[in-house]
Design brief:
heterodimer, A: 478 residues, mainly alpha, two-stranded antiparallel ribbon, 64% helix, globular, B: 160 residues, alpha+beta, five-stranded mixed β-sheet, 3 helices, 11 strands, 26% helix
């Protein structure tokens, strides 16, 4: 873990300029969609465009007031992706007669409201460290919810949904954030213990056996998600998140190797034992086999996506001129294929570039921030985004088996959108802490603040001895 | 709709998309000024070769390895701790290696850890901060033997 000094400048005006450009991309995409379908200026376009502009400027103003030094790149990048996603969902709506874009817009509004609330109320990410173990319990509850009879429901083979009556929700999406908070809190506290050396194997320093506990627990949780919820994507995501964070906390390569061995073992057993995993692998390896292609739940979806990408070529068919609606789940699982078809390789690589920039800004915030909890949390959250992109885009392009993860900010789906905007809220807060000028100077600059109970002690009453030792982070109170 | 206009808009949009990325990257350029080397610091090897007295003047004193930690001031004054190869946690929390009974210290206040032949101190997000000499820590800094580390009312030094 290293530290890098940052030039302390708010740079909110840079953000404003980039934001205008990003909105031009998002709203422009939606305009082109309508134009090519000969209904350029319908009411959907105006509602979606103006709502997006209003929401994003609200965030910008909140950042100016509350988190002046937050990273100026993150918000424009996310705005562009959300706008592109909305446009593509709207475009597929026109082809299929659905109303998914307006639902997505509603969720965007909710997600941004939550982001504003987090930035306004939380202010300092270090507060979250107090909730290390609460986050673990919350994650466990969130992962259990879909399995409960009554509210849990199964959709397309995966039992990861809960029915709230008015809407459905995937609690696992929120669980990835609470798990990242738990891992960050746990690892920043116990890093020194885990670092204690065990056996040496060649150049590899293996950890001690008893420190393997957390890794085994993370592995069991991922396997549990795979077996009981039949969700390959989330399973990979949770374990990958833990592996990345323990590596960052300890900088020991042996953790990665141990993790990879565990994945290989778990993956092989799952392939042999569970038909849904076998079908996924089969649809990946033998995608063009007519028998696999025509099977229900076979490779029809992925092959149609590949055909779409192929017909897009280098420059794409142009927004609104392809047939991305031929692919099953074109607006959620396969939105990358739809983008590739209508924007071509040039457009799709721009989208990948946006993700790369977003993840790099997250990791930059981690490098700049001064507390190890914030470092671990920011890297964990950015890694989650990166891993999701890899799993989804790799799946659509048939590099790896297709799994059910969502493309962050683009795919139609409220829970994923909400969770990813929450991640952005945390990254913005951490980057604000990283870039804010540090108060340094001689000791005489101010009287040290005495802690609440200690102040009572100073007045001669009860000693402040039995305070909770886990209260590690105190927020400065004026 | 005119075909020509449609085609122009189609390519125009791709250009707009990449324009966004290029502007982001050029905005980043200024942000990547990663802690520039202190120009007034130690002379370079080239400068030293040209004027030998410069090199001698700035030659680092032989580094003394710290083996003990001693509390100089504060409620625990006089307490010593032998330094091994493992990091040391300072704070009021019971799990700390050196439990400070100092009202101005946080539960997990700071952390001393060895790297190479030196010890580094890192603040763990404490309320009142950690001071090395006169400067408040904003990142991990190397600690030389004899340099005072101040946590609340407690002052700690490393000794050879």
């Amino acid at each position: 873990m290293s530290n890098i000094t940052t030039v302390p400048k708010p740079r909110r005006n840079v953000e404003l300029l980039l934001l205008i450009l990003a909105l031009a991309v998002g709203v422009g995409a939606n305009f082109l969609v309508g134009l090519d379908q000969d209904q350029a200026l319908d009411s959907d376009f105006f509602v979606q465009g103006s709502t997006l502009i209003f929401l994003v400027f609200a965030v910008h103003i909140v950042l100016r007031i509350r988190a002046k030094y937050a990273d100026p790149i993150i918000l424009p990048v996310v705005t562009a992706m959300n706008g592109l996603g909305l446009a593509m969902i709207h475009r597929i709506d026109i082809a299929t007669g659905d109303q998914a874009a307006n639902r997505q817009l509603l969720w965007t509004g909710m997600a941004i409201a939550v982001l504003i609330a987090v930035i306004w109320l939380l202010r300092d990410h270090r507060v979250l460290r107090r909730f290390t173990y609460i986050s673990l319990i919350v994650s466990a509850v969130l992962l259990m919810l879909p399995l409960l009879p009554g509210i849990g429901m199964e959709l397309n083979g995966a039992r990861i949904w809960i029915n709230l009556g008015f809407a459905t929700f995937q609690p696992g999406e929120i669980a990835k954030i609470t798990l990242a908070i738990f891992f960050a809190g746990y690892l920043s506290t116990n890093r020194d213990l885990i670092l204690l050396a065990g056996k040496k194997l060649g150049p590899l320093q293996l950890p001690r056996w008893k420190d393997m506990g957390p890794m085994v627990v993370a592995w069991l949780v991922s396997i549990g998600v795979l077996i009981f919820q039949r969700d390959l994507g989330s399973s990979i995501l949770f374990f990958g998140l833990f592996m990345a964070m323990i590596y960052i906390a300890t900088s020991r390569v042996s953790w990665i190797l141990i993790g990879l061995v565990m994945i290989a073992f778990g993956g092989f057993v799952a392939f042999k034992l569970f038909p849904h995993v076998t079908a996924r692998i089969d649809g990946w390896l033998n995608a063009f086999d007519p028998e696999v292609y025509n099977r229900i739940g076979g490779s029809h979806q992925i092959v149609q996506g590949l055909f779409g990408l192929a017909s897009g070529g280098l420059t794409g068919t142009g927004l609104g001129q392809g047939r991305p609606d031929l692919v099953t789940f074109a607006n959620s699982d396969m939105i990358i294929a739809a983008m590739g078809e209508e924007l071509g390789l040039i457009g799709l690589s721009a989208i990948v570039m946006l993700y790369v920039l977003l993840v790099s800004r997250g990791i930059r915030a981690a490098l700049g921030t001064r507390d190890s909890f914030g470092k671990l949390l920011a890297t964990g959250l950015s890694f989650t985004l990166a891993l999701q992109c890899f799993v989804v885009i790799g799946g659509v392009t048939r590099l790896i088996p297709l799994t059910g993860l969502t493309t962050p900010f683009m795919a139609a789906g409220g829970s994923s959108l909400l969770a990813n905007w929450l991640i952005i809220a945390l990254l913005l807060l951490i980057s604000d802490a990283a870039r804010r000028p540090a108060m340094t100077g001689p000791i005489s600059s101010g009287r040290p603040r005495q802690r609440g109970l200690a102040r009572i002690k100073a007045l001669g009453s009860k000693p402040a001895k039995n305070q909770d030792p886990h209260r590690t982070v105190e927020v400065k109170k004026p | 709709m005119d075909d020509l206009v449609v085609t122009a808009l189609r390519f125009g949009f791709l250009i707009l998309l990449w324009l966004l990325i290029i502007s982001i990257i050029s905005a980043l350029r200024r942000d990547l000024m990663i802690g520039k080397k202190d120009k007034t610091g130690a002379p370079t090897a080239r400068q030293a070769r040209k004027n030998p007295d410069l090199a001698e003047q700035h030659a680092a004193p032989p580094r003394v390895q710290a083996h003990r930690l001693i509390v100089v001031e504060g409620p625990l004054a006089g307490k010593t701790l032998d330094l091994a190869a493992s990091p040391i946690l300072l704070g009021r929390a019971q799990e700390a290696t050196l439990v400070l009974e100092d009202d101005y210290a946080s539960g997990r206040h700071a952390r001393l850890f060895p790297q190479g032949s030196r010890w580094f101190i890192e603040d763990l997000g404490s309320t009142n901060g950690t001071y090395l000499g006169d400067t408040q820590l904003t990142r991990a800094l190397p600690v030389e033997p004899g340099a005072p580390i101040r946590i609340g009312k407690t002052v700690i030094e490393l000794r050879p």
